[in-house]
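U., I forgot to send this yesterday:
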Amino acid sequence: MAAQDYEVRVSVKLPPGADQAAAFAGFGKLFKLDAGQVATLFAAGKDAIKRNLDHATAQKCQKALNQLGIDCEVRPMTDSDPGHIAEHPITPEDAPPAVPPAPPASKADFEPDTIRALPLQFHGKAGEYFRIWIVNVVLTILTVGIYSAWAKVRTNRYVYGNTELDGQRFSYLADPITILKGRLIAIALLIAYVALGELEPALQGLVGLVLVAVFPWLLVRALRFNLRMSAYRHVRFGFDGSVGGAYAVFIGWPILAAFTIWLALPFAIFKQQHWLANGYRFGTQHFKAELRGGDFYGIYLKALGVAVVGGLVAFAAMSVHPVLVGVIAFFAYLFVFAYVHVNQLNLVRNAMTLEQHHFVSSYTLGSWLTLQLTNLLGILLSLGLLIPWAKIRSLQYNATHSVVMAHGDLGAFANRENEKVNALGEEIGDVFDVVDVGVGI
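Result:
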């Protein structure tokens, strides 16, 4: 048996141009750390050591880290080393805590160049949320849907109130009456669509086209409403994407993609995500996301490859048993959907910045797919009663894999934005007279 007398010393710094999301995810998998712990370790700039390895394993580890853009070296183990983080195998208990301690009072720690890794935290409990959810369901049924506006407010206030960043929780500020007005408009449009279908099918098709045509306008209004009703440290979020931009990316580009036999579809999705990400605002400060169309093509081409392989396997399975075709097709579709969702979400989030602050998303395909399958299984076996449990698990997963890399004092940044908003004499967004029109945002 090979001697376990080698170690890999890792320099937790990334060179310019490195893929931060891939590096963080790969490093976390190798060292058995979650997203918050990895971000904290890289922000601190300390070296990490993976110990008790044979020479071949150490070299494989070195190669894997180098492919992620992380510098490291293989060397014989030493008895002691002030730079090492933990003995191999590294466990979460040995690593830096996922939640950094409360910031000290010293202002020196909040100089502009100070970088702090701030993991998102979610404190919600399935039992607590179940009580809210079951009351919402019963009252919505008894009131023929009218209570759904109050149900949305109760749900969002619970979710926002249990989501914490840097010791402060988020707020949801919407009025149920405003939401109800928007939903009544949506219901009226739906009734008109169904009624015209009964009277004159041709008119129903025309109304359907009208609904598609107004979708971008409805989307913008829904985004403006939902973001404006969300706040952190008493500063509201916002959305400034234009209606014209919405028509371009949700109508124009998809039509162009159709004319290219869907070859331009990844580019159309890139344009949509770019428009959305760069439309968000916190106070007066806009989010920015430097996205590239080629990255979206990379995701969708790989997904297409998996879909083709799945189709070929399903076709081959026809000779074994017809039922296998459906099973293989289902899991192939699920895998492709998960692959696209996880990689696209990481791509967009990791490209986003807010002033000097930036974001780290470390969703992984295996863990997210496992989460969705177990959630689905739980919901089916419980006949829907475990929906609250599934929602809480999803929110906890999102928090565990989301980190804000704050440059300086996040509280001071929020206070500056609050002062800018107050200086305007009115809350940004009032001039739009926005309402929630029922678009699922």
